[in-house]
Structures are given as C-alpha cells and as structure tokens.
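Lab notebook page, bench 4
Experiment: in silico fold of construct C2
Operator: M.H.
Input chain length: 133 residues
Purpose: comparison with the prior construct
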Amino acid sequence: MRAHRFPEIDMTRRCISRFAALALGAAAACTALAQQPAPPSAPAAPEAPAASSEPIPKHSCAKPDEFPGNVATDTQKRTWQKNYVAYVDCLKKFITEQQALAEPHVKASNAAIAEYNSGVKEYNAQVEKAKGN
C-alpha cells in the first residue's frame, strides 16, 4: 500500500518557518538595539512592564491515536485520517488566532525599535557634527 502525503504537513511547515522568521527578525532587531550606544545624557529608560499574569494559551485540539497500521481495516484507517485532518485543522485555526492576537504587539514593538534606532542615529550624527566644529 502506498503512503499518502497529507497537504496539512506543508501548512505546518509554513507556519513553523513563518514563526522562525518572526523569531529571527526579533533577534535581529534586538541585536540592532544592542549595537547602538545609548546616549550618555539620556534619562534612564523606564522599566519594562511586568510579564502578563495571564496563563499562556494552549490549544484544545484532540490528538489522534497512533496510526492503526497496515493490519487495520479500511474503515479504521479512514476514521484515523478524519481524526488527523480534524486535529491539524484545529491546530491551524489556533495558530492563526494566536498570530492575529500577537500581530499588533509585534507591529508596536517594531515601530518602537525603528524610532529608537532613528533617535540614536540622529544623536550620533549631532555628536559627529559637534566634533567637526
């Protein structure tokens, strides 16, 4: 019997790669912040807000049992496949909802990072200009 490739696996890989790209982008932004010297006369930065006391959401998708194997009946295999598809669809829905919830926070963070970097760049330019005079 030939093994079937489920298209849902490709969706999972895409979600994982998007998450990895998002994490890599955040790491790059943090690196960019770390490379910029803080202005010496700048007031102390306010403390970061405390971490949310809300529990981290987890999906409630029912994971299917192990694949019944080649000795199972066709009905058992079809039932397992339906359960698998329902599980993957549930995970995709959860991922989409969580990404939608996170998107405004990521945008706000990126905007603040861009503002910080441009402010430091402007400060450094003024310092260089003052050195030249």
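Observations: Confidence is low (pLDDT under 50) at residues 30-34. Residues 11 and 92 are 8 Å apart (CA to CA).
Next step: discuss at group meeting.
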